[in-house]
Specification:
Elements: E1 2-8, H1 29-36, E2 41-45, H2 46-53, H3 57-64, E3 69-73, E4 85-88, H4 91-95, E5 101-103, H5 107-115, E6 121-126, E7 146-154, E8 157-164
Parallel strand pairs: 1-5, 1-6, 2-3, 2-5, 3-4
Antiparallel strand pairs: 6-8, 7-8
Amino acid sequence: MVTLYNVISEDGYIARKDGSEDFIPDELWPFTLDIFKKFDVLVMGRKTYETIQNYDKKSLETFEKLSIKKVIVTHDKNFQPKLGYIAVNTPEATLRMSTNTLVSSGPTLNNYLLEKKLVNSIIFHQLSVSIGDGILPFDSEIKKSLILVSETQAGQAKELVYQSL
């Protein structure tokens, strides 16, 4: 099973146009880590990996101590992530690693997996802040093929769970 996970603003963005995630409070990080812990493999794109590497020291350390495989999908065959991460050149290579995979990435990887019908469910932690314009987690047309199956409060975020048709 492949699950996609993103933190989103109330108006559906994962980041501002410049890639900034400054609207996401640090207090949400433990909830995000709790989601990650439920999976065997965490898949991210290279930009997400680079963003995480720029987190403050404490947040980065708690992430890197998670006992899950951390996989980066990149087309750069020479890319060498730091110790504790695995680089692969195709999203499909990650799917052979486990039947319990979480993808937390940006629109390029998210769109690819959703268009290929490789995602079973989507979890959003939606914050009650609007940013007006930004980067969507995937193309807006894809949302038409999703069914909302649950909506619960998770701390300061609303947890929205969708199934992919």
